[in-house]
Amino acid sequence: MSLQELEARIRILEDIEEVKKVMCRYCHFINVSQWDDVVALFDDNAKADWGMLGTYEGKEGIATYFKNIIAGIMPWTAHQVLNPIVTVEGNKAKGTFYLWAPSTVKMTDVETAIWIQGRYDNEFVKEGGKWKFSLLKYTFDFMTPYEDGWVKTKMMGG
């Protein structure tokens, strides 16, 4: 293996780790309600699709989702991603991550403990040496009250 081939392989490994760190920062910033920091992880033209919770485009739209929706209904969460599968091709990457998030939701001034589980299928772009979301796509597997569990109530409100 040539030095050039080895450098290319190391670059891919480093890029994979940086993409994973974007997801980790995303989770951390959500957990501590740092909405501006969450939004800064997105490319200017990014799209975010949270399924039944809506699709938002651009940093302004994504900021609206976090600051006007999530901040108002989710006073606490432990957003965690698991089982990362990341592929990198040049300045673009794709990543699948599973979410596990015990959380509290507030509806009609009543706080409820819930379990959230699903999958992120995201796309990333490297700009100025930094990886950012170009597409965030989340698919719910379940969002259930703590007391019910996912067998009794797979999706709250549905």
* CATH topology name: Nuclear Transport Factor 2, Chain: A
Main sheet overview? 7 strands, mixed
Question: Which structural class best describes the helix and strand composition?
Answer: alpha+beta
Strand fraction: over 45%
Question: Low-confidence runs (pLDDT<50, min 5 residues)?
Answer: none
Distance between the termini: 56 Å
**Total helical segments:** 4
Order of helices and strands: HHEEHEEEEEH
Oligomer: single chain
The figure for the number of domains is: 1
CATH class: Alpha Beta
Q: Could you tell me the number of beta strands?
A: 7
The CATH architecture would be Roll
Task: Characterise this structure.
The protein has one domain (3-152): Nuclear Transport Factor 2, Chain: A, CATH 3.10.450. It has 158 residues and is of the alpha+beta class. It has helices spanning 3-31, 35-39, 58-73, 149-152; strands at residues 42-49, 55-57, 76-77, 80-89, 92-107, 110-127, 130-145. Helix content is 34%, strand content 46%. It is built from four helices and seven strands; from the N terminus they run ααββαβββββα. The protein starts with a helix and ends in a 6-residue tail after the last helix. Strands 1, 2, 3, 4, 5, 6 and 7 form a seven-stranded mixed sheet that branches.
